[in-house]
């Protein structure tokens, strides 16, 4: 069975631009792989990093089909196995991979991989790991590389201030997007400091918060694997697509339901609008949060002064 599974992964690996393919258990255990790594540590690094974003994407969209993270230097592609929610495929590629060929090859092979798991590995793989709060704390402490150093909490996001003219300009961009791209379900900006701009009244705070979290988790994965800045995320679900783009001091989010749209055309249109929105947001003022004395006392309760970093990195 191992030969059949590796052969199936190798079929995906043969696409020009694909570098590595890993079948991962939801808890970060790599089951099989095909690619250009030089060590097992790199395989485990990819598996453990991508399982985090897989969990966040499942919280936002349930049983999504695939998620694509794109940066200037690479793409990372996650695909759920049909009827096997505890397993997913991770594909890392060069920046100019043939995305259409990759999607077609993935569609053809995901069912094959699920079949092999069901026929040969059912009940043979280690059970999914779970941790108590104490276990989790011990694991986090294990990441400390300097003996005797306390854990530091760093809040690095600034708080921004928008004037009315900028907010209206951003709203106008969203209206153009809504009018240009058919079947738009939601479109908004989620900015640092809790600012959210949308068309009409914005009611779904959870979607804004989870979109920001999904992008933030994806950015950490890209930085871990490629030491590069994430540019955009695309999540494909059974009912539609969710686009998340990086903009200065926040993210842009667009959800559309399926209706015959051309993915390439949508990405081309969004590139134009994101460029214009980024130009507007680059000019907004940003400041560090000022923490009142009573709140500072509460935050520092039981913590030494050197163990807490406030926005901007100042203790």
Structure description:
With 315 residues, this protein is α+β, with helices and mostly antiparallel strands. It has 2 domains: 2-121, Dynein light chain 2a, cytoplasmic (Beta-Lactamase, 2-Layer Sandwich); 159-287, 2-Layer Sandwich (Beta-Lactamase), CATH 3.30.450. The protein has 8 helices and 14 strands. A hairpin with a 3-residue loop joins β8 and β9. 27% of the residues are buried.
Q: What is the helix tally?
A: 8
Name the CATH superfamily assignment of the largest domain. Answer: Dynein light chain 2a, cytoplasmic
What would the principal axes of the Cα set say about the shape? Answer: globular
Order of helices and strands: HEEHEEEHHEEHEEHEEEHEHE
List unreliable stretches of 5+ residues. 303-315
Helix content: 40-55%
Number of beta-strand segments? 14
Which architecture of the largest domain would the CATH scheme give at its second level?
2-Layer Sandwich
